[in-house]
## 1
Amino acid sequence: MSLETALNTAKMSLAANAKQIAVSARNVAGADDPNYSRKSAPTITYGNGVVATGPVRASDSLLYERYLGATSATKRDEALLDGYTRLAQTVGDTEDDASLVGRTGALVDALREYANAPSDDNLARAAVTSAKDLVRAVNDAAQTVETLRVETDAEIRSSADTVSKLLTEFEELNTRITAGTSSGLDVTDDLDRRDVILGRLSEEIGITVVSRANNDLVLYTDSGVTLFETIARSVTATNVNPTTGAADNPPKSYVVIDGVWVTGEGAQMPLKSGRIAGLAELQDKQLPAYAAQLDSVAFGLISAFQETDTSGLNALAGLFTNAGAPALPGSSTPMPPDSAGWLASALSVNTRVDPDKGGDPTLLRDGVNSVDAAGNPDPDYAHNTEGAASYSAHLFGLLDAAGARQDALGGKTLLDYGASTVAWVAGNRQSSDSASKASGAALQLLSTTLSNARGVDLNDEAALQLQLERSFQATAQVMAIVNSLYEALLSIVR
Amino acid sequence: MASNFVSTYNLLNGPRLFARNAQAQVARLNQELVTERHSDVGLVLGARTGKATLLHQELAGIDRLKAANGATSARVGTTSAIVSELRSAADTFMATLVGLPTNETSAATVHGEAGRNLTTLIDKLNSAHAGQQLFGGVKTETAPAKDGSAAVDTAFENFRTAFQTYWTASGNTGTATVNDIGARELGLFLNPVDPASPDLAGETPAFIALATATWDAGANARFDREFDAAAWSANWSSASDTNIKSQISATETLTTSVSANADPFRALARAYSVIGSLPADQLNAEAFKTAVNYAIAQLGEAVNGLTIEEANLGSTQNRLKTVNEQLTLQRTLLNDSLVAMEGVDPYEVKVKADALELQISLSYSLTSRLQKLNILNYL
């Protein structure tokens, strides 16, 4: 033991102290960043003194994985909830009668009023106006679904794009980290940055993380497809609908990772969570299901108001038509469940009764087809043979048909089917909302726990700095003492 | 250690996050307090939203039905009043006929009265309510009744030609006057008898010939035929046989009009025509009595029929009243179940909103205190 040793120890202590202060300063700087993880430089004894190692990150990889999982689940639920909320706009509030039920009911009421006073042309107009309102509601709902499908497709593409870009960034960082770790460099900030990328990845797609030597990470989707191993795998969205653009044929994209289909019908390893999974669920199941329901409503309307000729063998479209065609929707028309909202967007009020298109609303009373296309009476479809102003039998027949159960609607009446459509949307929205709330709450809790596990407490850092300041002063004191001892020794020699 | 550690980020952001959520909640609760309904009904009811929209729809339907029933009831009321007026006029005329002394003055009086009654009948059958013909059946745009007495006159002229032949064949000379028509012969005009009928056995060939002439459809010389369905539609009425039907509730449909083609009106027209259109004042006493008896029989039939029509209209009105009362009750029940589904308890909401506001102000003061709670302030 010599004074030399004491001075050396003090020097080492100063160096360790400086490093610890530097790390603490970084912690203070990162206190506001939720993605920053607390660093520390624990001291270890080395020779006759101490050295500050590291820096080391405070982290909890198990907790972080749970956080990633919760993020993916939340994003999936949010994507679904967004979709349902948009669909719920086609239903509206129960009170404002803008839903299919409200409009159908208003049409039935208007028809009944007209049937009770068939000589009143204003009531005929009112009934046709109600029918147009109903058609507009069905068309608008179909349009909303259509828009949503186009948007969902775009979102899936951009989401797949984001995943692809993030993976490239991830690859760069991961390479730097593994190289840095093996050569003993400080990679803690890169690790933080890599965690941020993981967090953003988990928003788009559910991931599982496996760690290997040298801080190397391997990423799999939650369904088991390799996303990243040493190098990033390809993530693409493939359009599977070649005739995109037609109103009845919205674009549709399936996501392929590393050559494996992970969304869509017949996906080999379907994704379970993340935004992409939610969007795919919307695109492939929920939106087509709603579109098919709207088509059924349109089909139900056309067939309820169809008119049969005197022979009872032939029928023509009545008040409602398929894109204005006098014929009933037949084998060439796409039918539910594959129809994809085609009929719902093509539903229209027969121009013969539409006063805005030069039609005569009172034809509703006498039979829409009682005059042919050229305007000449068609005896095969004539109902009001007396030409009576208050003839109502045909209208009452229409009312009966509108209130009848239909096989095409699963044995339900138009109103009941409309109500079940409303119930479908609202029920899905409610359950998706509560799922989203639950996963959101879990995520909130996990981020709080995670922030506590790896975040910075400024008070803690301040206390630590005080402690370091004291230790610096003590070391300086030691050096001063050694210095004075040397002074004393040297003055003897002099 | 980890469980004791709270990061500065959490410490400062925790209360702020709460305040943000709570403010959204307060806005929602305040809205619910005013409307007393859930602010987002679809989200709260979920799959039951379908049922709620149906209930709303039924409510709207009931309101419209009630309004329509009110209009129908007014129309039926007017119809009923007119039928009742016609019935009492028929009653009065019948009383006059029954107590009629057989002299020429009285014959002239009733002849005029019957003519006026016939005009009144036609006018009344052309009554309209709110621009709609009441007795036209479903043909509510054209006045249904018109005066068909000209055709009756023609028939009588034809009868007189046949009677002239009979008069000559019976050994009389010269031109027969109306006064010469006997009760039996007039009987043939009013109620023709099949000449082949055994009732006419033993009658003179001339009388049989007269019976044949009145019976023959082509000769157009019989009174009753002027009031059968075909002649009535051609000369008296353009009404439709189909009556107006009204749907008064979701499931119930009623007939709510009376057609001018109904039997009682035809009986009335027969009764008034036989006295008013035919030259009843010129008939001899016996024949006049036959005409009066015929008229009394027809009036009796008409009064009976009109009473039945009145009763039907009355019960329709009564039914409309009952249905509207039921609809009002149903409306109340529907409203109650809607309130139960969509409504919120305002007291509960108020308490919740107050509690939230308290929590928010607490969280604000906590935030500012936490900001001060820093070790640097105490060094």
## 2
Amino acid sequence: MNLEKALDTPAKIYFKNESVSPAGSHKPNTAVAQAYYNYKEGVKKLTTETGAGQWGSALAYACDIFGLELQVFMVRVSYEQKPYRKMMMNTWNANVVPSPSSLTDAGRKILAEHPDSPGSLGIAISEAVEMAVKDPDTRYSLGSVLNHVLLHQTIIGQEAIKQMEIAGDFPDVVIGCFGGGSNFAGISFPFLRLKLTEGKKIRAVAVEPASCPKLTRGTFTYDFGDTVGMTPLIPMYTLGHNFIPAKIHAGGLRYHGAGAIVSQLLKDQIIEAVAIPQLETFEAGVLFARTEGIIPAPESTHAIAAAVREAKKAKEEGVSRTILFNLSGHGVIDLAAYDQYFSGKLQNYALSDEEIQKSIHELQSAIS
Amino acid sequence: MSKFRKINLDERQMPDKWYNIMADMPNKPLPMLHPATKQPVKLEDMTPLFPLELLKQEMNDGLKLRKKYRIFTGYGALLPFTVL
């Protein structure tokens, strides 16, 4: 591929293209399954959160197929950065509000304390959960983290295994960006099956933003999935549910914790994690767009940046490696982020150990 | 350099199962806990939030596999799905 040429690497790079779905990402793989089971059990309305809007638009598309009403709480910073996502969701009949909102007790409480809150996935989840539990005909739907969501996404890796078979190749390393775990699990779990059951040598690398580093700098403990504390306690690598990540453009990765399965796999050193700063991810995203033609979502640029690092390392070591990454979505709705990158307005965010410790300390007081 | 520019699967080649990695993990993930009791959550605790079928999938730690599911694939076709 042209990216290999541009990097002048002996490595072979493959990507699984999930950007061609109606919503533009891998998210319909679970959105449609979730909407279907809710529909089958007589549910009339779903609520959900969304960060960058990839999940919200996928669920809007899925709910529209089955005639379910949908209320989306979209993290405010993303709502303002990505207005076209809201329009996509409206086109598929969903109602969208910026979160924190005045529709819920959780949102009103946060707005009273922080009127300018940029929001977070944790806050939006609190709002969506609160609205769902108050109405017997409404259920809640989550786009990542939970076991059943990761399960639905495993068709990505299963398809990739078949495609690699056709290519006559097998990856040494499989890479996915990481927010709560859905696309990383989707691409990597079927390959990890071959590692766990047949002893195949394969590395699985989860790539998180340096500004939201729960896998590389977080703590493994029980934490809430949301900010207010309405969900069960989940065993996870976390930065603490009060942690508000910097306003990076990869809104789908602005989440304080990792799902239980991925956390256990990391703890057991079956997978690896790496954190990459925002500017390096956009540099890789632009290189990918200019070599392969597809403008990647800011989330997916994290996987590309890690693939670029692996390809450069292969060159330095003078060895050929086969690299597979998941292109989880396209970035055509995220062009404002690219515009900011080109005009030099994007920045990296340094996160101190003290900030992380403060948030973890608050967590320990909250759950003890 | 890889020889292939693009590899498409047709619908018949697409997987008809999901893969439940919990079945193969050396250490299963710890259970979710009820915040008030600090005991593992029961399926009934979660029914105000999720439909039953999704909760069964959520709490399937790999012991009760091969249950057949039927779902829409997302593109209009109704296919039988099995959990691996």
